[in-house]
Amino acid sequence: GVEVGPQPQGVVRADILDKMRKIVKHGLDFVQLFNEGKEFPPCTIEVFKIMEKVDYPRNKNDEVIAIIHPKLQDQDWQPLNNGDPLFLTLDGEVIAYKGDCTVYPTFINEAAYYEKKQAFVKTVKMKLTAKHIRSSV
Description:
Blueprint: H1 14-35, E1 43-54, E2 66-68, E3 85-89, E4 94-96, E5 104-106, E6 120-130
Antiparallel strand pairs: 1-6, 2-3, 3-4, 5-6
């Protein structure tokens, strides 16, 4: 599957559809070249590994008591460091990120995840290295 976004639920955006088409085309081009026996050299790519789903702060009645801080909103895939603002309580108190490493939040404040008690997902940046590959056909 391919998911390209962000995009509000029920909305079709031409720019996002174009990106999805390009990704699918690249995937199909790769399959065709691989099936034709093309050898692909080793490569290294940067990826984001999901580490943890983070819920909104809640009270003892399981009610949300803080919202995403404005400085975090719309900052998917951007570095979040120890001390950076994370949430803003309804009383105006800032709740900062407390972590021992830089993380890269994504799916920040996505409406589809409210019912799943997910404010965002913490990811870490990694590099993956692939050996060369070639079809054995």
